[in-house]
Design goal:
By secondary structure, the protein is mainly α. The two termini are 18 Å apart. Strands 1-2-3 form a 3-stranded antiparallel beta sheet. Helix 2 packs antiparallel against helix 3 and helix 4 packs across helix 5. The radius of gyration is 17 Å and the shape is flat. The protein has one domain. The chain contains 5 helices and 3 strands, in the order H-E-E-H-H-E-H-H.
Length: 132
């Protein structure tokens, strides 16, 4: 195998996954990107810079705020878009994807925990993002 073949072997692709809390089909599909994508790597670099800055300024109390914000920023970077099996319909509770809708869903007191856990689990395995 040569280096070009190795590059091709580790090239990740976005993947679509249905949100199924407790195994219940929702018809809500998320397109997710792998951690190696430029969009996710940018969020990671910004996080590292903030931590480094807080370290130099001895702002240890800022760490908790930075880390909490990082978790949501990272999840948002992993989500490319979403779609609904039955199509978008705001009145039926199926809003079209937007960053604001994603933020609202992640912050929702009932849905947020489960959605965060779903995203974290679905982006955790490199093999799932490699071409089949």
């Amino acid at each position: 195998m040569n280096i070009n073949a190795i590059k091709d072997a580790v090239q990740t692709i976005d993947r679509e996954v249905e949100f199924k809390p407790a195994g219940i089909s929702t018809g809500w599909f998320f397109t997710l990107r792998h951690e190696s994508s430029p969009e996710v790597q940018k969020v990671i670099r910004v996080f590292r810079a903030k931590i480094t800055d807080a370290t130099f300024k001895s702002k240890t109390l800022a760490y908790q705020n930075i880390i909490a914000q990082q978790e949501d920023d990272l999840r948002m970077a992993h989500v490319v878009t979403w779609c609904w099996e039955l199509g978008d319909d705001v009145e039926a509770g199926r809003p079209p994807y937007s960053e604001q809708e994603l933020k609202d869903a992640l912050r929702d007191e009932k849905l947020g925990y489960h959605l965060k856990k779903f995203i974290d689990e679905e982006v955790g395995t490199l093999h799932d993002f490699l071409p089949k």
